[in-house]
User: What shape does this take?
Amino acid sequence: MKDVTPAIRAGFLIPLAVCAGLQVLLLFVLGGRGFAWTFQSPLSAATMGAGYCGGLAMLVASLRLRRWVDVRVAYLSTLALMVLMLLVTLRYAGRTHLGGGDIVAFGNAWGWLIVHLLAPVAGAILLALQVRAPGQNPRREFPRLWLTVLPVAVVALIGTGVGLFALLFPATAADRWPWPVSELDVSALGVWALVFGIGSILAIREGDPDRQRAGAINYLVAGAAGVIGLLRYPGEVRWDSTLSWVYLILMILLALTGAVGWLLAGPAERWRSPALAD
Assistant: This one.
C-alpha cells in the first residue's frame, strides 16, 4: 500500500493548512477586513471563508491519514483551487490591493499572490514524486448504492454548473446573485463552487467511502459554516429572491451529506497511529 510521502505533508498539506487558517480568520471571523481585496458585502467574505473552514478541516484530516488513496482527492481538489484562484487573482489584479491601500490589506494581497504562485508549482512537483513513490493503490470493489452516490452527484452537478457560469459570465452571475457582489467576488465564489464540483466527481470515481473521509469533513464543515455566515448577515440577503432560499437549503444539504459520508467512512484505524508520525 502506497503511503503519503513526508514531502507531501511538509511541502503542501501543512503550509496550506496554515494559509487556510489565516483566510478563515480574515474572511469568516473578520468579515473580509484586511483581505487581499474589498468585498461588496461581508456575506461574500463569510461565504468564501466558509469554504476555507471546510478546506482547513479537510487538510487537517488529511494530515492524519496515512494512505495516499485516502488523501489524493483532497490533494487534487486543493491543487485545483490554488490554480483556479490564481487565474482569478491575475484576471482582476487591478481590483485587489496589490497596488496599494491599507498596509495590512496590501501585505495580505501580496502574500495571497505569492502563495498562489508557489503552491501550484510545488504541488505539481510533489504530486509527481508521490505518484512515483513505491507501493500500490489497489482498488477495492465496493457496491455503489444510489442513496449514497446521488447526493454527491448533485453537489458535483450544481457545483460545476454554478462555478463555470460564475467564471465564464461573471457580470451576469453578479446581477443574479442573491446578495451584492462584484465580478471579482462572484468569480472567487465560483472557484469554490467549481472545486466542490471537481472534488465530488473525483469522490464518485473513487467509489470507496473509506477514501472520502476527508472530503466528507469538508462538506460538513463548509455547509455548516455557510449557514452560519448567512444567519450572521441576514440583512445582506435578498430574501424575496428564490435563489436565497435555494442557497440556504443547499448549504444545509451539503452539511448533511458530509455527516452521512463521515458515518459511512472507514473505522478509526484508517487514521495514522502515533508510531507512524513523521
User: Anything to note?
Assistant: The chain has one domain: 6-276. DSSP finds nine helices and no strands in the chain. The first helix runs from residue 6 to 29. Residues 139 and 206 are 8 Å apart (CA to CA).
